[in-house]
Amino acid sequence: MWSDREVGRRYGAGVSATEDQHLIIGAGPLGLAVAKALKEQRVPYRHVEATDHVGGNWAHGVYETAHIISSRKTTQYPDFPMPESYPDFPSGAQMRAYYEDFTDAHALRAAIEFERAVTSVRPRSDELWDVDFGDGTSAVHKGVVVCNGHHWAKRFPPWVAQFEGEVLHSKDYKRPAQLEGKRVLVLGGGNSGCDLASEAARVSSSADWSLRRGYWFMPKTLFGVPSIELMNPYAPMWLQRLVMRLLIRLSIGKYADYGLPHPTHRMFDAHPTINSEVFHYLQHGRLRPRPDVVSIDGSTIAFTDGASAEYDAVVCATGYDLAFPFLPEGLVPVDDKVAQLYGGMLRPDYRHLYIFGAYQVRYGIGPVIRPGALAIAHLAKLQDELPMPLGWLLKEMGSKPPTSHLIGPFETIRALERVVKWVPALRRMGKRYSSRWTAQEREVAARRLQPLTNADEVTTV
User: Fold this and answer.
1) Which of 163, 143, 187, 216 has the alpha carbon at shortest distance from 391?
2) pTM of the model
């Protein structure tokens, strides 16, 4: 095992030959796993993180009382289990400690440049990448692995600007004192929305909860086991839906009995909400359900059912946009929250650009991260052997971008594991398609350098 100093010398810290290195953007759960995989496969890399800690959202972006929604077993890296002393649903502090431990156990810290934000990443005609940093420095890199995460580009409903009280996004909520003694309206029925509605029910003078639509609410535990761990990876989706709907009816009852709308979509077609606590407060009258907002008048908010009320604060648990602000507009097209990527991480016009984590797993992301990081490491080595971008090759072979931003963990794991096994086959296919690529190479290279601001270019996949 190399020392931290040796790892830093070989893989980032103090290395000036960046043209031979892949740049990993972000030291959250995804970026750390990629660093480990590239190091194992002897792929030279440089690792930058905009903040002063590893762990991504768990280091800076969660409230003090946060616990994971997915269970310990479905959140941990498969090759680095969480301590047995951790509960089924670890706290934010425990998650931060876990990622710190992972970083040190695999000697990744010395190669991470903290507080180095990336402001611009641009493709070059020689197929390298120009990268600018927030401190005014720049570098040329062989490739880029984007691991900037989901939970930072805050989304607000358009009407909040008209509200005369306090407006808070769930990203900015840190502790119960921010809601204490206030008349609070929480927007959104996702996992953060349920957590913050429960927080408001505990400490505010009144707590209302507005939902635009119906959600599938799953209990955190069933029969003493985290509910997502009851999912059979080999069962067809229709059977998983049937079983979970039956279990929800037995454990929670009808949503209408709590004043909540029934979902209009199939279970698992949208990200499931896993929360049991919110039903406690609904039953005790500490939390009042409301429908969608229809109008604002100062601090008075009216709802679609004709009711209205005054509020001191609105908490927007309204989610996040998928964004890559340092990439040229349209380089990674996003269609209704779905990144248009081949193989889940590649674009057809560019070599050595990998977008990791653009999709959300229906339940626990942990087991997906390791095979995904390994796939990137193997593809980075294979890309050196092929003249065409791997994304182009996958597209020519019939691959298509996903149609949903949600992915199933078990089928994704199997697909990522197949990528590594199929590297020899992909190498052979690359040679078979090389003549076709040569004929198109000039056209593609010219298109690659055009400014990506035209609406037609943005939607090109």
Assistant:
1) 143
2) 0.89
Q: Minimum mean pLDDT among 248-257, 333-342, 397-406, 443-452: which range?
A: 443-452
Contact 301, 309 (CB under 8 A): yes
Please report, as a single letter, which amino acid is at residue 57. N
Place of tokens 């009258």: 285
Q: Which helix (H) or strand (E) holds 47?
A: strand 45-49
Pinpoint the residues of the chain covered by CATH 3.50.50.60: 4-153+321-459, 158-316
The domain 4-153+321-459 is placed in CATH, from the list 3.30.830.10, 3.30.300.160, 3.40.50.11590, 3.50.50.60, at 3.50.50.60
The mean pLDDT value for 30-34 works out to 97
In angstroms, the CA 318 to CA 156 distance is: 6
Distance CA 214, CA 292 (A): 11
Q: pLDDT above 90 covers what percent of the chain?
A: 67
CATH class of 158-316: alpha beta
Helical segments of 337-433, H only: 366-383, 390-396, 409-421, 423-432
- H/E element, 315: strand 313-316
**Using an 8 Å Cβ cutoff, are 149 and 155 in contact?**
no
